[in-house]
UniProtKB/TrEMBL annotation:
PROSITE patterns: RESPONSE_REGULATORY (PS50110). GO terms for biological process: phosphorelay signal transduction system. The keyword Phosphoprotein applies. SUPFAM superfamilies: CheY-like. It holds the Pfam family Response_reg. InterPro entries: CheY-like_superfamily (IPR011006), Sig_transdc_resp-reg_receiver (IPR001789). Residues 7-123 form the Response regulatory domain. The modification 4-aspartylphosphate is found at D56. Keywords: Phosphoprotein, Two-component regulatory system. This is Response regulator.
């Protein structure tokens, strides 16, 4: 498999989740950036211009839907695909993530065997715009 070279920002409050996903994606060749707060997320986006953002929905300071909406409200960032990552499996959750401007939706626990496939699919979608 060809090495991936994309930049991924993972917004997540849970340290263990960040360590796990960093390990998986760095092994695939991605460059990983992380944030656990809104301020950090905007700093990482501004500094590193990620190709894709993985967005945890349940965070103590703010929910990922609200943060996604704030990112998508900025013209310079709205083209970055945001994938919602959530353990919420309630009805309407997918609609809510799409309504907030998320480009996709994956369920926790993250299936690391298909994560890169999902990331590449959303990157491809962006490249075709
Ligand atoms: Mn969380």
């Amino acid at each position: 498999m060809a090495e991936k070279t994309g930049k991924v920002l993972y917004v997540e409050d849970n340290f263990e989740n960040r360590v796990l996903i960093r390990r998986v994606l760095e092994a695939e060749g991605y460059q990983m950036f992380e944030a656990s707060t809104e301020d950090e997320a905007f700093r990482q986006i501004g500094d590193h211009h990620p190709d894709i953002i993985l967005m945890d929905i349940n965070m103590p300071d703010m929910d990922g839907y609200t943060l996604t909406a704030k990112i998508k409200a900025k013209p310079e960032y709205k083209g970055i695909p945001v994938i919602a990552v959530t353990a919420n499996v309630m009805r309407g959750d997918k609609e809510r993530s799409l309504g907030a401007g998320c480009d996709g939706y994956i369920q926790k626990p993250i299936d690391v065997d298909i994560l890169t496939e999902q990331i590449e699919r959303y990157r491809l979608k962006k490249d075709n715009l």
